[in-house]
Specification:
Oligomer: homotrimer
CATH class of one domain in chain A: Alpha Beta
Radius of gyration of chain A: 27 Å
Strand order of the largest sheet of chain A: 8-11-14-17-20-25-28-31-34-37-39
Strand content of chain A: 25-35%
Number of helices of chain A: 4
Shape of chain A: flat
Subunit structure (chains A, B, C): Homotrimer.
Protein name (chains A, B, C): UDP-3-O-acylglucosamine N-acyltransferase
GO molecular function (chains A, B, C): UDP-3-O-[(3R)-3-hydroxyacyl]-glucosamine N-acyltransferase activity
Pathway (chains A, B, C): Bacterial outer membrane biogenesis; LPS lipid A biosynthesis
CATH superfamily of one domain in chain A: MurE/MurF, N-terminal domain
Organism (chains A, B, C): Thiobacillus sedimenti
Largest sheet of chain A: 11 strands, parallel
Number of strands of chain A: 40
Amino acid sequence: MASTLADLAARFGGELLGDGKVVIRQVAPLERAQPDEIGFVSQARYLAQLAHTRAAAVILPPDARDATGLPRILTPNPYLYFARVSALLNPPARPPAGIHPAATVAPDAVIADDASIGAGAVIGSGAAIGARTVIGPNCVVGDHARIGADCLLHANVTVYHRCEVGARAILHSGCVIGADGFGFAPNAGAWEKIPQIGRVLIGDDVEVGACTTIDRGALEDTVIEAGVKLDNLIQVAHNVSIGAHTAIAACTGIAGSAKIGRHCTIGGAAMIFGHIEIADGTRISTNTLITKSLPRAGTYTSALPFSEHEVWQKNAVHMRNLDKLVTRVKDLEKKLKELESKS
Amino acid sequence: MASTLADLAARFGGELLGDGKVVIRQVAPLERAQPDEIGFVSQARYLAQLAHTRAAAVILPPDARDATGLPRILTPNPYLYFARVSALLNPPARPPAGIHPAATVAPDAVIADDASIGAGAVIGSGAAIGARTVIGPNCVVGDHARIGADCLLHANVTVYHRCEVGARAILHSGCVIGADGFGFAPNAGAWEKIPQIGRVLIGDDVEVGACTTIDRGALEDTVIEAGVKLDNLIQVAHNVSIGAHTAIAACTGIAGSAKIGRHCTIGGAAMIFGHIEIADGTRISTNTLITKSLPRAGTYTSALPFSEHEVWQKNAVHMRNLDKLVTRVKDLEKKLKELESKS
Amino acid sequence: MASTLADLAARFGGELLGDGKVVIRQVAPLERAQPDEIGFVSQARYLAQLAHTRAAAVILPPDARDATGLPRILTPNPYLYFARVSALLNPPARPPAGIHPAATVAPDAVIADDASIGAGAVIGSGAAIGARTVIGPNCVVGDHARIGADCLLHANVTVYHRCEVGARAILHSGCVIGADGFGFAPNAGAWEKIPQIGRVLIGDDVEVGACTTIDRGALEDTVIEAGVKLDNLIQVAHNVSIGAHTAIAACTGIAGSAKIGRHCTIGGAAMIFGHIEIADGTRISTNTLITKSLPRAGTYTSALPFSEHEVWQKNAVHMRNLDKLVTRVKDLEKKLKELESKS
């Protein structure tokens, strides 16, 4: 793939300055760009990189129009523009349409003619695979599951029976959609399984990271709305709902029936209690435990600053006596007041 | 599947009040139950839902016998009863017995006649698969591994060589049983691998969540006793033992050779040090780090309450000077005493 | 496999004392060793175990030469010696060389003659598999990926297109090498995907645990240097680099573009911010959050000691008022000073 700078501007907009016939073959960071590559700067503090770059061209915000003599495109959001140029120059490899001879597809599954089912993939009874969707090698799509159009399931993805995935979803290897939620009734010291008869419903334009697990609902469905982006190794328990366009970083866990709002961003290794509600637009910091509902958007944190080990140990041990310390301070305040009144 | 209320009472016990001929086709939460569905109430505070439900019938504790005029079954544990009704009405889909033509089974593996081996599954040399057990598509069961009767391995499960799983186990997709424990001997700045020659032994009635990993023992075995329930994305290191009927929520990690008692409940994202022992019946809270043995049952916690970010930062920074703060308080106490003795 | 003690000493060195003709069939912990097994003691406090062992022989440090009358080998590092004896006596089962008939290998993939490709494995176009390497059942190796010589990919491993793995790597089941990094540009409330066009490059002698995920770089590569050991369920984000011989315990997460030094050890469930650098030889404790660069080696910690739940709650609540507490102490100090100056 290659494109001239003028072609890029025609396709994606922006103001072109300089030689539009320059040929762009790839995107790259400015400091290592080759003479057929394009870079970008979105923040003023990185403009200095322009002095030494070998890039063919650069994408800049309008107020940096004079920061270089290189061929350039001016646009209010250089990072987004760069992403689109990259997507144009790096189209995902598409395996040929059709069912690989080493795949196993149930006779009553409905596979779009232009879908691609990889070697070793197994598609269950009554399942439906949408137009142009790619099911990677060794994926398993359960009975009566539905995968929309233009999806990409990388290798070794598992979608359990009856779960549904919207259009343009990307599911990464090892992710598991629709395993049973963790539900048991205690009975005389043992646990009896509560059948998990809900589904997982995933909207359009969702991306799910590697080895992320989204459990099916107990009675009702687990719901991931459109545009949600989930990183790797995230646990989404049964009956959770995640609002549209929320992004969640890796290693986070969300307990059962939590209701996460839209447009939230949740840092890595956050843990969110079950049966709580989180307002639209909330930000949760890395390593933060959310133990109750957050009715107002804001940024919430419970992560501690680290120290050198010996320093940390010396300080942390007092956590075990913080209540006594507070009592001691109260006591001091009282006694001091008495002394002051006497003097 | 459907059943009359009278049939349910005949099968599962309890006291039937009202029309036993009512037909029940599904379980549902009371607030959205349809006229052929049954709900339950286990706690008095939810009895108000009875006023507006469309459910055909309801399961209630004995002291709520007069809370509704609906057909009802009275039983001391409505949730458990509900679970059993749900299991009756929602039997897991069973693939047909036999070895799928797209499976690969070693000639000397012993597969029960009524077991089901899915498409793409690979069963190793000398492995044994018990009666009525279902091995899902693309599962891999290693050489000389043994899976008991009535187990359900969902798609894409991996069981390494020589590991053993008892009867009625449910293993969810992506879980890995028997990978090597993390054991290395340092040698001149590099690590030399310690062969992990133990196994994983899993008892009867165990459930293992999606993408949970249970490592094989270094010299002896990793042991998961009967009735243990493990949620998703849990790490169980080599030589750990987990006592019967312990339940562990998602994202928890248990380091090597830890010995967890029976009937424990461990919250999500807990971390448990290696080489420690935890008493039977212990409860560990979400996000809690257990650094030493717990010889007495109890509830243990180390999770911090979150705050709004700015508030949190202002407070948390003092963690780094807690020891100095304690010294300052001590100093104040001493000086105040001196002043008091003077006045 | 079996070996005489004399053969072991000839092969691995050390000073042999006692009957060299003793036959050793297995390694074992001293307390349960059988009469054809060998144990070891590396620390003086475990020498007492020698009194009651049934082991055929034992590996000891030189200063314990007289601690037993058993046949023994003296060596400065008994644990390492034991590891090597174990590796000799427990060679990994090697499947036969060649491509299993149920594997799917692209016509233009280059597979070493003595490599072994398991049932259900899928090898992409232009991929290369090195000499003596074993690709386990149902693994997927993407287009143009390269796996070096003498590697072992256990079942159900996924390596994405264009990623590279050095010699003698061990990849455990469920691990995912080369999924897309988590990169999106915000656009009017939605997220637009940044193509992840870098690769994952893994050096020689690396081990990757079960369900560990290593994302491909956004523009440049994610790099895992030689000798790195990664436990299970670890997240390595895009553009991370991990220096040679660093070992990382399970459930740890490393955010994008972090640069971890060589010879570091990182405890379980640690979380490391993105875009920071960690010095060679650094140690990070379990459950510790590293929020900024660590330019000097040392041990760093932010994990809290647990307490019984009620005690913990009583103390932890004060975290929310720590800043006020410090102000109160300051105030006390000031007032006390005033009083002292008066008295």
